[in-house]
């Protein structure tokens, strides 16, 4: 037993010694300092070196660290003995208590032997935390009565960092009312107080939004913000106010308990509880009053609380106090007097003294409608009466004097809601019990225009199929107006809007009475696709009210346009003829049919088909692009002429189509294939190509020589026919039959020619009208300007008879007095337009001696009657109008004159309706009915309309009205406003035409033909063609008139395979308009070789054989003889001709041979001379003479060759112009 106790003792000693050793070992502490948030793997220190341990024994001795807070932040590298970071350490997490230092204590334990080392690691703070406020928004309620300088505590920001990294200061956003003051707590923390710098005013600004920023002292500094929302609290600074200071209420006795006496209303300008009002009695209100009437403290209603007895109290006075619920409550007060009326036994009586009915519904408020008097036979209180009407009526009764009351309008009236009122006026006396009487009056309201017309919809979409009939009904657009009579009568208008210079009223018409919308013209989808305009509905009230709505017209497409074949181009109905080589290869493009359709996309899709094909195995047609190509090569069995009829169909229902007929002719080329040439033996052929050309040339020149010799003989054998001499005459113009003189009107029949000449001079007018037999000559002489038209006589053929002036005298109408002493009108009718009034002096004379007399003058004024028809200055007006005029342009002023007076003189102008292609004249032209100004309502296009002929009527306003009309001829003048349209070769807009031609093409071959059309007038539509660009000017030529492009030579090996030609087509307008087309030509090699290439093969004969030599000699000889003959003929013709005796002396006469035409004569005169320019056109030549001669001289004109210019006259020959001056 003792042994066991000893063993236990030693065991305890051993343990104690062991722990003592451990305590001695741990008594020393190793200290390290590191910043927080170090990266993982960062080395803190070499622990083995610091502890004096052998690195090699660390693994064997199982060196380890204890775990802190269940996490292992550090570890030891047993290979190197280094202490390194295993996980990032956050100082604020490890040391939750905010102290200046933060330590981590760890133990390092090793075994064999066991040793424990104490390690202390200090975590140094870094600025890794942002200041944060406990609340993101700080709400403060500050009364508007708070004085300046008042402080308000704000919650401070928190920064887990310490020292300089903690919060350093605060900032407040700029404002006028608040500032901050920074305070420092005992623990060094910073906080801010909000200081009111300026008093607040809730009425100006009810809240203030501020930003408070907390900034720490770290580098770089971090900051956090919080919003300060200051709500300005209202103060109770406004007292409640009653509507009135005092109320007087009449209340009959025995009023039912709970009946409302009066409802008081008080208002408070404050808000919230400061504006909530409590009603109460004041101390000055008697207990009896408070017992009799109840006061609702919330709404201010005073009601009967108990039975009222007139005998007890007749008047109840009370003072009501309205108190708000503010902290410092304010109050207002008013006085209420309740008068109790007594009951009686006599019925009161009502008498209507005045009553106005009907009245307009817009009668002003407070207007007196009726005056009512009331009476009661009782006396005292029982004789006093109260009068009232229903509270549901917009009327009120107002006392005007004792027992008289006015019935007033208390609210605006509306006839559309209530057309009339039955007003029952009830009168009740104040007796006990009260007796009453009533009277009912009916007030009728008259309508005023106070309602705007309303359409059921504000936007209408109306589809209209194109090609509609003019005048077709499109829709009925009806508005509603609840007013009556004329205020309800609506008139519909189209609000004017121009589209492409066209007014909407020219396209659409609306029935002003029922709103039916009509189309005035036939619409074409290809021109107009939609219209957007407004329609206004206006009532007939005063002033009128109106509203409008939007109409969207959508034109629907129909398949109404036939395809138009633009290539190959041809005149209407003609056949296209093409020539193609017979050696054309398979797949060669023969022609391309191009058609266009102006319908919509669906209807305009074109397909091409053969309507007729002479040989279906020879040609193919692409149904989509219209290309016609060969399906095989031509054989000897194929006909030389092929006819193709192509039909182009659109995609509409039903489909429309157009056809083109193409006649193809195959021609042999001048080239032979190499295989053909090898079959021909190279022996000598007499009639080679050169022989043939020489024979043809010799025959042609010989024929020309014979013709020239024959013409020369005929000219020499002719005898000159002497012209007949013109007899002497003064100032005459002599012309053979079939002649035409300027401004002359010629009418022919079997026996006579009639001619009218008109010449203008400064002194007179030359007019001659002369019937003469066929073949006779004309005689013209000068007459004074005042002379009219006369016919010449046979006795004085050379002189024009003068017509004397006729003077018309109008005598005054006579009046006479008879023995009966009555005034009689004379025998002539009166005419106010000639003499508007007469001063008639009546003289009376007695028969005494000496006779005495007296007179009296009376004025007779004539009243106008409508006896004169309006007269236009002309009966026919021709008005030229340039196309593309502006709509509304003034064309002319057509004014008639009516000599009547007043309404008989007032004229109204009308266009007499006439339809042209379903279009009324009033849709094209407008005339001002007051002054006759004629306007164009649309823009005219010369290419569509060239002229208009219609009548204008002028009608006076008399009874019955008289009228006359005038014819107006509108001529549309052309402008060069259409650009030439290139129809061949056809191409899409802006694209390039590409063509392929054989490189072996001969000189003069037609490559392409440009065809352009212009829809302007003849002058403006003349097209000329020019090259705008030509790659090689020596290779291609362009005919400026027909647009044909031909080769000027054959292609050589130097010429490019690709040629580009740009052709411009210009019209003849001013300025000229043009269109261009670009043609790209590509040359391709054929399987044929030219004859020139074949010349490389040696020939077995000589080109210039004996036959060829003889042919060349004969051709040269005949050509030389031809030149000699032409030269001799010219010499003979140039010899001086003998003077003609055909024209004897005649002073200043003009003689023209038969079949001559004298035209474009211009006559100008001055005091001394007549100037005349004649231009004569004959079959043989042109006659032009300009000769100043004295007045009265005669002209002699004869034919001269066309090539001859202006010459002076001589006496040598009859073919020369003779001018001689005659002396008077």
From TrEMBL:
Database matches in InterPro entries: Cadherin-like_dom, Cadherin-like_sf, Cadherin_C, Cadherin_CS, Cadherin_N, Protocadherin/Cadherin-CA
Keyword Transmembrane among record annotations: yes
Gene3D superfamilies (alphabetical): Cadherins (2.60.40.60)
Any coiled-coil regions, as ranges: none
Cellular compartment(s): Membrane
Signal peptide: 1-28
Pfam families, A to Z: Cadherin, Cadherin_2, Cadherin_C_2
Membrane topology: Single-pass membrane protein
Major location (coarse): membrane
Transmembrane regions listed in the UniProt entry: 692-715, 1109-1132
Keywords: Calcium, Cell adhesion, Glycoprotein, Membrane, Repeat, Signal, Transmembrane, Transmembrane helix
Record keyword Transcription regulation present: no
Domain Cadherin: 26-133, 134-242, 243-350, 351-455, 456-565, 580-683, 815-872, 873-982, 997-1100
Name by which UniProt lists this protein: Cadherin domain-containing protein
